[in-house]
Write a structure and sequence with these properties.
heterodimer; A: alpha/beta; Rossmann fold; 6-stranded mixed sheet; 4-stranded antiparallel sheet; 10 strands; globular; B: 15 helices; 69% helix; binds adenosine-5'-triphosphate; binds magnesium ion
């Protein structure tokens, strides 16, 4: 049961003279929900980008289910089973809600493009399967009624949900959420907390999330990692982190805790 | 659902029948000038759809179209000009083997032209498709010029600046519209498939598309090569349409001509490209009077101003872009159900069961 899903070993990311992430070590077990927190500019998104292949770590390694994914292209890493959302929403803006979720299933398609153009039986089956999964996911996320809307026209909260739906559509084993509650009021973030838990249970997922809303973080996380100026300063359960002197100091001494 | 599909199928068949009769009428009874323009419309449909695939649907800002057209055009010319004609054509240097003794049927020559253009697109794409936006535009523009310069200088293959004459004018109205229709159906099926959705995703947001598991290089290459193939076929048709080609036929301005159709119709609209191909082709012919003398304008030069038609045309294009920022159609398409909705809205009665047509 305690299977290691993700392992980050001594990962460092340098941009010229700036060390955005310094010697990061972390791990996540199967079906855990783990939070990565820290003041603005601490290197959280950079850590996500190293895990998802947007950046190749300057040094160190990343493994998924004991297989090294260090330096792989983002699309290969998505194939391997990591899906993500973005801090600044990155939907396929001028496409419909339904298309957004269909596109995320393209990576599981086994038919070739000529087979798709000719609408061969296997392609038809796969395509129908995609529509069925899209319906299931969108219904689960409460977005089925707006499936025909253009993604960009949705209210902000729904766009965040659609990003999660799109990530789930790739059938990941590990879901990375970059500030899913950003811009949400307390009621909405409470609902989101339930949603993330529900997703974890229903899809047997492992979740790593970056979040500034401490109520969400403390409520949802099994464990928490704290970054400050690129370095890990603490790791532990929510209760441990709340007591940690270094963490309190980093947050009070640094920026505001709200993005 | 199936009922809707069946009736659209029926309507499409009716439209096709009407189109065929119209073409047969034009072919039989209209002046040869009208027939020429009608054929050119179809060739421009092929070229515009091919460019729309990369530019409009994949968001690749490639400006190499004239180069790919040239490959198709020269291939068709070299493979279809009769052997005896070739001997008289190549006066400075004899044509190299195997072309000096080889002629193929027009269809086979078109196919080979397209394949060669696609192969070249692969070679150009490997370094260029990794570039972003403007860099890619400049690189592809440069390649298109390189192709033209190679053509100008490969005397024993292309006859250099003298060009190639006596290309059999096989591309009649049926060839042109047959291929245009085939390309139209092909592009529609591709775009509405999962691969088409992936291309659109790349256009919308490369980083998000890649994070969703879409291989950027793979899909851009697919789009680029298919587009080059179709441009090669379009170029081959064009060669057979005009009968005489030379390096100056495939200057950058050819690319702009097609770009104009795509922009006017709407980047990412198949229907838009088709409609705009007709509008632009016919419009450019129609405005040709502007190049000649305009006696009713007292201040106008006696012999007219050559190029005036392009000035007026560019202004018209500017107006279209200013008022319809996404071209005439934007991303929209003409479908039977859309027409049906319009009609019933016009007739004033609402149908309750909205047709949700998912492909
Ligand atoms: N591509 C890049 N090139 C140069 N510097 C970068 C790059 N990406 C991030 N940085 C820098 O790395 C540091 C960490 O940025 P990062 O986005 O990871 O912070 P974060 O913890 O996600 O902050 P926030 O809470 O504001 O989202 C910042 O100083 C940022 O300016
Ligand atoms: Mg961030």
């Amino acid at each position: 049961m305690n299977k290691r899903v993700l392992e980050v070993n001594h990962a460092t990311m340098r941009f010229g003279g700036l060390v955005a992430v310094n010697d990061l070590c972390m791990h996540i077990d199967h079906q855990e929900i783990v939070a990565l927190i820290g003041p603005n500019g601490a290197g959280k998104t950079t850590a996500f980008n190293m895990i998802t292949g947007v950046y190749t770590p300057t040094s160190g390694s990343v493994t998924l289910n004991s297989r090294s994914i260090t330096g792989l292209r983002p699309d290969r890493i998505a194939h391997a089973g990591i899906a993500r959302t973005f801090q600044n929403i990155r939907l396929f803006k001028s496409l419909t809600v339904l298309d957004n979720v269909l596109i995320a299933q393209h990576l599981r398609l086994t038919s070739s493009w000529p087979a798709a153009v000719l609408r061969m039986p296997r392609y038809r089956r796969e395509n129908e399967q995609m529509y069925r999964r899209a319906e299931e996911l969108l219904t689960y996320m409460g977005l089925w009624d707006v499936r025909g809307e253009i993604a960009n026209s949705l209210p902000y909260g729904m766009q965040r949900k659609l990003e999660i739906a799109r990530a789930l559509a790739t059938q990941p084993v590990l879901l990375l959420l970059d500030e899913p509650a950003a811009g949400m009021n307390p009621a909405e973030s409470a609902e989101l907390t339930e949603l993330i838990r529900g997703i974890r249970d229903r899809f047997h997922l492992t979740v790593l999330l970056i979040e500034h809303h401490m109520d969400v973080v403390m409520d949802i996380s099994d464990r928490i990692y704290v970054l400050n100026y690129g370095s890990l300063i603490a790791e532990g359960t929510p209760a441990e982190i709340q007591q940690n002197e270094d963490v309190i100091h980093a947050y009070l001494g640094g920026d505001d805790d709200e993005a | 659902m199936t009922k809707v599909k069946k009736s659209s199928m029926l309507l499409s068949c009716l439209l096709l029948a009407a189109l065929v009769s119209l073409l047969a009428y034009i072919d039989g009874s209209a002046s040869s000038y009208i027939v020429r323009i009608t054929r050119l419309c179809a060739i421009n449909i092929v070229l515009a759809l091919s460019m729309n695939l990369v530019q409009g649907f994949t968001g690749i800002f490639s400006l190499g179209h004239a180069g790919f057209m040239a490959i198709g055009a020269y291939t068709v010319a070299l493979l279809t000009i009769p052997v005896a004609k070739k001997e008289t054509l190549f006066m400075l240097e004899p044509l190299i083997a195997p072309f000096n003794t080889l002629t193929l049927p027009f269809g086979a020559a078109l196919l080979i032209g397209g394949l060669l253009a696609a192969a070249l697109a692969f070679l150009i794409g490997l370094p260029c498709l990794r570039l972003r936006g403007d860099y890619l535009a400049i690189a592809t523009l440069g390649f298109s010029e390189i192709i033209r310069i190679v053509i100008t200088n490969a005397q024993s293959l292309t006859n250099g600046a003298q060009g190639l004459k006596s290309i059999p004018k096989t591309a009649n109205i049926w060839w042109c519209y047959g291929i245009a229709l085939a390309v139209l159906i092909f592009i529609s099926l591709l775009i509405s498939s999962s691969f088409g959705r992936a291309l659109k995703a790349i256009r919308e947001d490369e980083i998000a598309a890649e994070s969703m598991g879409i291989s950027l290089l793979g899909h851009k290459m697919l789009s680029f090569m298919l587009s080059a193939f179709l441009a090669g076929v379009g170029g081959g048709l064009y060669a057979s349409y005009i009968g005489t080609i030379g390096p100056d036929v495939f200057q950058i301005s050819r690319t702009y001509d097609i770009l104009m159709i795509v922009v006017m119709g709407g980047m990412g609209s198949i229907s838009g490209s088709v409609v705009a191909a007709f509008l632009v082709t016919i419009g450019q012919e129609w405005l040709r009077v502007l190049d000649g003398p305009l006696p009713f304008l007292p201040f106008w030069p006696e012999n007219g101003v050559s190029g005036m038609r392009m000035v007026v045309f560019s202004i018209l294009l500017l107006i279209v872009i200013l008022f319809f920022r996404n071209g005439l159609f934007g991303h929209r398409e003409i479908t039977w159900s859309a027409i049906g909705r319009r009609l019933s809205a016009l007739a004033g009665h609402h149908k309750d069961g909205e047709v949700k047509a998912h492909e």
